[in-house]
Design brief:
single chain, two-stranded antiparallel ribbon, disordered N terminus
């Protein structure tokens, strides 16, 4: 399939060299006099292609020295701790003078297309398909803006430098979210069912609608804003419709490997779970750095996230199961848990296939904490971690150290697991059937976890502290569904949005960030002393990654859920005032 995609790129490149109507300035600067009246289906497709990398981020831009957008965005959460603390989750971000997220180029380009595409000589079906893609991108871009800025101006038409609408104020979140919902509904109407996994389809638009509506429904519910039920109903229905489309969770590698292998595939076209992906191909200089970045990226799962994986002996939280405790050591504590744990993290046990990159040729062991420990001939570190919990998800051994930008695994941007989580959560919030055996329990069964979630789960005191204010009728069930989201979607970039929409940032982001409890069987006393001096432990012996490495304290408040409207924009257009609460 990638060969076909590569061929398509060459064909498009050739077409751009031979067809005047493709050799144009992209997006909102298109020349109306020549483009629309001559743009055939290939030209419309090429126009749409410009917006894929802007919104379908995946593992980031090819040939880029990053760990990828999906992982990188998870640093802004309490799931994955990077080499430095997130200033946003620590509540230390300051007012921005400018912000590239306050850019309207995507909206302008979408509006230009939607205003003019019917002039094209392409067939009606082709015109509707590509209009559907642009409606998808417009809804997606506006959704991202609302999450970042709250109220934003809504633009429907094509503006010029003289348009008075350029100086309008921000429209209310109510109006904008209704407009987004209308836009994504039109996209669903226009788009065909999925044909190629790397192209936007009706299926992807339905999932985007479900995602948007779950976000907005819970955002309003947990801030006492009207109309939460309508959005939750839309999320529940959209996810339910997708569940009739024939998707299923990928399980071809068996319960011990399927979750891990889901994220390291080179082509998702035949994968039963992936609804939309972003493709990479190092053979045409379109590779990424994800696998090369993970082992020495100084990132690690937080202890708080680690504790959410249930005990496989009892099905209970580890805080009450009686089988696990931090004094038993890394290795023992990682075993007999929800199977996703050892398919997400590396276990520092020689000979264990889940050790991944931690051992090589009889050498290795536990990860180097922040790379501060020296290696020797007898003591070699093949991985680094900020917390002691080294990440394995997205790591593909065959791509490690074969050269820069050799990552060819595609990015699973939208997958069926999210559909099941949305259906379950929206149903539980509404007091409707969450269809647990079709949703959450399918996720657990994929990894062989023997305890299904029931309508009346045992209350986990840790989840009660984290999520004290539950509005839905079955509080413990909703908390358990939130646990499933955190585990299933780890390092895919969802956690910040979830904490924001549930309105629990002041609880979860003002807790001390912790890693693993230091295990003297895995580190020498000299190494432990070095970690203590340069990183630090709390009074119970857990690594505190930022206690000595951060120059600021935790102070996440309500204002930190949103950015300020950039000050330069306000200078140009004072009608954008008032600024967001706390940023006045």
């Amino acid at each position: 399939m990638k060969k076909n995609c590569s061929l398509l790129i060459l064909i498009i490149a050739a077409a751009m060299n031979s067809c005047d109507y493709l050799d144009t300035i992209p997006g909102d600067a298109i020349d109306n006099n020549t483009f629309w009246s001559t743009a055939n289906a290939a030209a419309l497709e090429q126009y749409c292609n410009l917006y894929y990398p802007k919104l379908i981020k995946g593992h980031g831009d090819p040939q880029s020295w990053t760990i990828g957008d999906m992982i990188n965005s998870e640093y802004q959460s309490d799931n994955l701790l990077g080499s430095a603390p997130s200033i946003i989750t620590f509540g230390q971000n300051t007012a921005l003078t400018s912000n590239s997220d306050w850019s309207w180029s995507v909206v302008r380009g979408c509006n230009e297309f939607l205003t003019n595409y019917e002039k094209s000589p392409a067939s009606i079906s082709d015109k509707r398909r590509y209009a559907g893609e642009m409606l998808f991108f417009k809804a997606f871009d506006y959704f991202n803006k609302v999450k970042l800025f709250g109220d934003v101006p809504w633009y429907d038409g094509v503006l010029t430098a003289e348009s008075p609408e350029l100086y309008k104020g921000r429209d209310s979140r109510i109006l904008v979210m209704d407009s987004i919902l209308s836009t994504i509904n039109r996209a669903i109407e226009f788009l065909p069912r999925k044909t190629a996994v790397y192209r936007v389809s009706r299926d992807a638009a339905l999932l985007l609608k479900a995602r948007i509506c779950l976000y907005e429904g819970t955002y309003r519910r947990y801030r006492n804003i009207d109309d939460d039920v309508r959005f939750l109903e839309e999320a529940y229905a959209a996810a339910g419709e997708l569940m009739e489309y024939g998707y299923s969770l990928y399980d071809a590698a068996g319960p011990e490997n399927s979750y891990f292998e889901l994220f390291i595939q080179d082509d998702y076209n035949a994968n039963s779970e992936i609804i939309l992906s972003r493709e990479y191909d190092p053979s045409i200089n379109m590779g990424h750095q994800v696998t090369n970045s993970i082992p020495y990226g100084e990132l690690g799962m937080s202890r708080d996230c680690f504790e959410e994986y249930l005990c496989a002996n009892t099905g209970l939280p580890i805080s009450i199961c009686g089988c696990h405790n931090p004094d038993m050591g890394y290795i023992a504590e990682m075993k007999n848990r929800d199977g996703r744990l050892l398919q997400t993290l590396c276990i520092p046990e020689e000979g264990n296939p889940n050790a991944r990159y931690l051992f090589k040729d009889g050498l290795g062991g536990a990860p180097n904490i922040f790379s501060i420990l020296p290696s020797s001939e007898t003591r070699t570190f093949y991985g680094a971690s900020s917390t002691g919990y080294a990440m394995a998800k997205f790591y593909k051994k065959e791509e490690h150290l074969i050269g820069n930008f050799k990552g060819g695994t595609d990015a699973p941007v939208m997958r069926y697991a999210e559909v099941l989580l949305i259906r379950a959560e929206a149903g539980a919030e509404l007091g409707k059937d969450p269809e647990l055996d079709k949703t959450i329990n399918k996720l657990r069964a994929r990894v062989g976890f023997p305890f299904p979630l029931t309508e009346n789960p045992v209350e986990d005191p840790n989840l009660v502290k984290e999520y004290p204010d539950i509005k839905g009728p079955n509080k413990n069930l909703i908390r358990e569904i939130r646990r499933e989201r955190r585990i299933e979607l780890f390092a895919e970039g969802y956690r910040w949005d979830d904490v924001c929409r549930w309105n629990v940032g002041t609880i979860v982001y003002n807790k001390v960030r912790r890693g693993a409890k230091m295990d003297p069987t895995l580190y020498t006393q000299d190494e432990i002393n070095t970690i203590s001096d340069l990183v630090g432990f709390d009074q119970d012996g857990f690594i505190t990654p930022y206690a000595k490495r951060a120059t600021y304290s935790m102070n996440f408040t309500e204002k930190n859920y949103l950015y300020n409207v950039p000050l330069d924009e306000i200078s140009l257009n004072p009608n954008l005032l008032p600024n967001n609460p706390g940023w006045e």
